[in-house]
Amino acid sequence: MPSAWKKTNTILILKPKNWHKNVDITRPIVLIEMARKLFTKIMTNRIEQTCRRHNILRENNCSILKGILTHVPISILTNILDNTKTTPDKEAWLILQDIKKAYDSVDWFSLLKALRKIRMNEDYIDILRDNVVVRN
Predict the structure, then answer these.
(1) For residue 12, what are the contacts with CB-CB under 8 A and spacing of at least 6?
(2) Model-level pTM?
(3) What is the DSSP letter of 70?
(4) CA–CA separation, 117 vs 114, rounded Å?
(5) Helices 108-117 and 122-132 sit at what angle, rounded to 10 degrees?
(6) What CA–CA distance (Å, rounded) separates 35 from 87?
(7) Taking 80 as the threshold, does the pLDDT of residue 37 lie above it?
């Protein structure tokens, strides 16, 4: 992977209040090389097609695939909550995760383990590793 692709520019976008030089109330946006962005998009599309073709992601784990709606998992949760309301001796615990925030913080070794579990091509894994782990 070209070294220029590994360079980024981080721009802080101010939230609609006086920021008093407090970075916590800014919204960072990372600008990357256009060729890298295009390459990453192609890789993502190929991985998504492979997951579809070989039925790797299924049941409730498939909502990340294009064209898959989230209405089934939402319906399941609604039914569980409705059942809990009508049955006094039952409890329902619900944990939600903000995937937007989790996506960029996934540990590489956990991702590597998951990719190997689904038998991802080692060449793709090497390319992803180079794209994600080694940055200037």
Answers:
(1) 23, 26, 27, 28
(2) 0.55
(3) S
(4) 5
(5) 170
(6) 56
(7) yes
